[in-house]
Amino acid sequence: MKRQFNIIVGLILFVAIGIVFLILFMSGRSQGSKSINIETDKAPLLALTSFRQIRGTQDFLAEVINASDSSLFEYGSARWFEFGEGSGQVRNLVFLNADTLTSQKLFETNNSFVMDVMEFPSQTHSSNSENLSEDVLPVEWFVYEVIHVDTNLDGALDRTDGSIIAVSNADGSGYTELIFNLTKLYNVIMAGGNEVMVVYQLPEGRYASKINLAIKAISITEPLPDLGNEVK
After folding, report:
1. N or C end of the chain: which has fewer CB within 10 A?
2. Do both 5 and 103 map to the same domain?
3. Do 71 and 20 share a structural domain?
4. Cα distance between residue 145 and residue 115, in whole Å
């Protein structure tokens, strides 16, 4: 009888010790999770890419990008959220002139996303495969799609936020933002002369605008026909 009592007491002590260790283990995991969340308050590591020459000019362009992706995939800050499409999200651009060695950045801070950079005029290539010595058409302007603000207030800066169409000269000077709060960009096409046609969607409807790149201003805007709620 005494032996059975000792066995029961031993089992009770064993279970009690196991419960204590389990509580301590779960507590440690909880504290570790909190420290990980604290770490996410830090901005991700950024890197400057190598410079590439802008076609037909003595200017060079490099990007400030996220240097890592998977470790920051769940980062929730509106300023530093990853799109989840791999590393290399562009946060800023740096321009460098080979003649004067003067340089400038596009934005004062690295808190934005540069969604797209389009160069104009575009270089057209002949369909004749033997014509490999075509004159290089220098880039004169850039058109950008950028995101600065968490417009939908979901705590993340990503493609669901309203974007902006902006333009600059080929050396990064004259940066001007012209069309705001886009929900979708359909096309940016050279329309002759110094103008590009931009087709886009805003919360209130779809539009086509012409931008005069030389003076960095919208010359005309017209609405597209209402296609009904079934067309997204």
Report:
1. N
2. no
3. no
4. 5
81-100 as b/e: b if 16+ CB within 10 A: bbbeeeeebbbbbbbbbeee
User: For residues 182 and 164, is the Cβ–Cβ distance under 8 A?
Assistant: yes
Amino acid at 103: S
pLDDT at 44 (0 to 100): 64
Amino acid at 137: L
Amino acid residing at 55: R
pTM of the entire structure?
0.72
CA angle, 171 as apex, 166 and 177 as ends, to 5°?
15
Tokens of 79: 């300023």
Q: Is 56 left (phi over 0), alpha (psi -120 to 50) or beta?
A: left
Take residue 228 and report the two structure tokens written for it. 């009904």
For β-strands 163-169 and 103-105, DSSP reports them as unpaired
Q: What are 39's two structure tokens? A: 């770490």
Q: How many domains does the chain divide into?
A: 2
Whether 26 and 80 map to the same domain: the answer is no
Residue 226, CA distances (Å) to 99, 167, 209 in order: 51, 28, 16
pLDDT in tens, 110-159: 988 898 999 999 887 655 545 555 689 999 999 999 999 888 888 777 78
